[in-house]
Amino acid sequence: MKLSLTLLLLLFSCTSFAQDSVFARRMVDTLTSPYFWGRGYTNDGMHKAADFLASQFTEYGLKPMDGKTFMQEFSYNANAFPGAMDVTINGVQLTPGRDFIIGPQSRGVKGKSKLVQTDSTHFVDRENRVVIALENKLTWSVEQTVADFTIVQIDKRALKDLPKTLDVNIENKLIEGFKTGNICGVVRGTARPDSFMVYTAHYDHLGGMGSKTYFPGANDNASGISQLLSLARYYAQHPQRYTMAFICFSGEEIGLLGSQYFSQNPLIPLSNIRLLFNLDLEGTGEEGVTIVNATIYPKEFGLLKQINDQNHYLAKVASRGKAANSDHYWFTEKGVPAFYMYTMGGIKAYHDVFDISKTLPLNEYNHLFKLIVAFNSALMNGATVANKN
């Protein structure tokens, strides 16, 4: 059985807005530029990104969630690599990011040594407490603490021979009490302003490794922030019955810290959230999307899938259960209905220097936007899954 004519008309009116994919490309280009330096802990990257997002909220006409400021401040420790990043193996100098990465918990080190092989992929400089690990793919991260050793992960393809000698100069800095914040704005509802639809995405990424290399984070998560900004801009122009709330989280890459902080210090009543929609890794989609928590909220997932099937937005809307893999998690733990949607197919770049805007297709950007808007409208107006019998 199809959706009722009333609901179909409602969906058409809500999805006929022609979203401009040029806006998305401009936002991803901007957020991945050297100015923001990977939206991390060096070159003031994360703070610049926060200021930029607050300015966008202001431009669109959103209001601060707490009525005062868009920034919800919090802090944590972070191990950063602001300066020297030199690694030479067998007399050959390697390129940061492409040939090697540093273990995110590593301490700084400077010295020369001969390496001792411990197994087929690991080599040790015991004097300087350095471990060399040969990898098939380099995937970086960030950490809150510093270990008493240094790990250098090297792409196997960067070396012609097994590592025998090491010349290393790496600078680290533990930033204690790194100050950052979530950017939180709202568009007040016209009929039920105390009920909320919430859209979230994290704006932080990995930042820089040394003074010459940064990780752009196009798909992760300039793409999700771009989609969130598109929704914020749209709903600012088209207020809804419910209040539409938007949260750009910081500290996701270091352990979901921004969403954890908000869930413990909410600026809106968590019990009043009808659904939280988290956007992370939104830059592809040729194979459709996956919805985390779909099995926990089968009625809402059924409605989302039904709308997609009837409008042919995406190739597939796949179901997945509970997972602690993005910022929806802490809200799920608090009993807040929450979905995390991520796109499938296309590029494989992830937590590396190759996650750039130029190769991010954004091929399903408009369809993602239309699906979310249609789903939100149906949910706020009490639609349910149609009976197929």
Q: What do you see in this structure?
A:
This protein is α/β, with parallel strands linked by helices and 389 residues long. 26% of the residues lie in helices and 28% in strands. It has two domains: 5-79 and 176-380, Aminopeptidase (3-Layer(aba) Sandwich); 84-170, no CATH class. Strands 1, 2, 12, 13, 14, 15, 16, 17 and 18 form a nine-stranded mixed β-sheet that branches. Helix 2 packs across helix 4 (218-237) and helix 6 crosses helix 8. The protein is elongated, with a radius of gyration of 23 Å.
* The CATH homologous superfamily of the largest domain: Zn peptidases
- CATH architectural grouping of the largest domain: 3-Layer(aba) Sandwich
CATH class type of the largest domain: Alpha Beta
Note poorly predicted spans.
1-18
How many structural domains are formed by the residues?
A: 2
What's the overall average pLDDT, rounded? 94
Radius of gyration (CA) equals 23 Å
In the CATH scheme, what's the topology name of the largest domain?
A: Aminopeptidase
Give the overall silhouette: elongated
Percent of residues in helices? 25-40%
How many H/I helical runs? 8
Biggest pleated sheet: 9 strands, mixed
Helix and strand topology:
Layout: H1 5-15, H2 21-31, H3 45-60, E1 63-64, E2 71-80, E3 85-89, E4 92-93, E5 100-102, E6 109-114, E7 116-117, E8 122-125, E9 130-135, E10 150-155, E11 165-170, E12 173-187, E13 192-202, H4 218-237, E14 242-249, H5 257-264, E15 273-279, E16 289-292, H6 298-311, E17 317-320, H7 329-333, E18 338-343, H8 365-380
Parallel strand pairs: 9-10, 13-14, 13-15, 15-18, 16-17
Antiparallel strand pairs: 1-12, 2-12, 3-4, 3-11, 5-10, 6-11, 7-8, 8-9, 12-14, 16-18
Helix pairs in contact: 1-8, 2-4, 6-8
